Amino acid sequence: KLVSREFKAEDTLVKAGAVTVGGDRIAIIAGPCAVESRDQAMTIAREVKKYGAVLFRGGAYKPRSSPYSFQGLEEEGLKILAQVREETGLGVVTEMTSPAQAELMEKYVDVVQIGARNMQNFELLKCAGKMSKPVVLKRGLAATIQEWLMSAEYIAAGGNTNIILCERGIRTFEPYTRNTLDLSAIPVLKKLTHLPIVIDPSHATGIREKVAPMARAAVAAGADALMIEVHSDPDKALSDGPQSLYPEQFGNLTRDIYVIAPVV
Ligand code: PEP
Ligand code: MN
Fold it and tell me: Quick check: 85 and 46 in contact, CB under 8 A?
């Protein structure tokens, strides 16, 4: 398999915007769940940049459980992301939910995300495999590591080996957290694959106060990157407010991360 350690022993370094994910330094990705407006995105981008983020995240196409929930600003959201890059210099990461969006993604963003709900959307994976952008592949809500790696293989088989695996928590019987963060996936993956690993403690826990301890643990366990949801006014967020850190909390977290490991 193209993504296996047997095929390639050295760690893959993924160029994402101006930064490298993988290698000796931790890359910090941060931003709101969704791009809600130009002002909202720009405000949060400036804050997270100030506190050490090197990539900005924000959804323009949101895979919501309810069709009545905010679905994202779509192309307008992608344009805002491009403006964020222009004004802050941060590379931008956003989710692609359909192959129909691929052209716009190529035009406006630096990194394409495949969401947990689409981890086995094979047509979407094949499409990502043909793209020129690096891909963050999130683990499915109830996917095994082997299934997840086979999904990465779909992308690699299409010719795109710039893949970052994202553990974002899995479904278990435990209701105290939104999902259960599988931290053991880090050492397991490090053995099986050369691809870099990003941990998303925001979706994994669903609870603001649980994000920082899990982020610190992820870095201690060998994660290559973190993806953290941050919002300047979480109470008014159109999605995932309860798990979004206030900018100052994000600043406290990055300061702690600097103590644990070198950061990009
Ligand atoms: C997200 O990153 O905003 C998201 C929807 O994540 P997931 O696909 O992991 O639920
Ligand atoms: Mn979210």
Answer: no
> What's the 85 CA to ligand 2 centre distance in angstroms?
20
**Alpha carbon separation from 40 to 35, 81, 87, 204, 232 (Å, rounded):** 7, 11, 14, 24, 8
Do the domain assignments include residue 24?
yes
- pLDDT 10s digits, 58-113: 999 999 999 999 999 999 999 999 999 999 999 999 999 999 999 999 999 999 99
pTM score? 0.98
Protein residues with CB under 6 Å of any ligand 1 atom: 33, 59, 63, 115-117, 138, 168, 203
Task: Identify whether the C-beta of residue 17 lies closer than 8 Å to the C-beta of residue 91.
Answer: yes
Per the domain annotation, does 8 fall within a domain? no
Looking at the structure of the chain, the number of domains it has is 1
**Residue 168 Cα to ligand 2 middle (Å):** 10
Q: What is the pLDDT of residues 127-137, one digit of tens each?
A: 999 999 999 99
Element (H, E) at 50: helix 38-50
Say yes or no: ipTM exceeds 0.95: yes
Residue nearest ligand 1's atom 10 by CA? 116
**How many angstroms does the Cα of residue 116 sit away from the middle of ligand 1?**
6
Whether 1 is in a domain gets the answer no
Question: What three-state secondary structure class fits 150?
Answer: helix
In a domain, 247, yes or no: yes
> What CATH number corresponds to the domain at position 54?
3.20.20.70
The answer to whether the CB of 96 falls within 8 A of the CB of 102 is yes
Give the mean model confidence (pLDDT) for residues 48-64.
Answer: 97
Residue positions counted in the chain: 264
Assign residue 155 a region: left if phi > 0, alpha if psi is -120 to 50, beta otherwise? alpha
pLDDT in tens, 190-207: 999 999 999 999 999 999
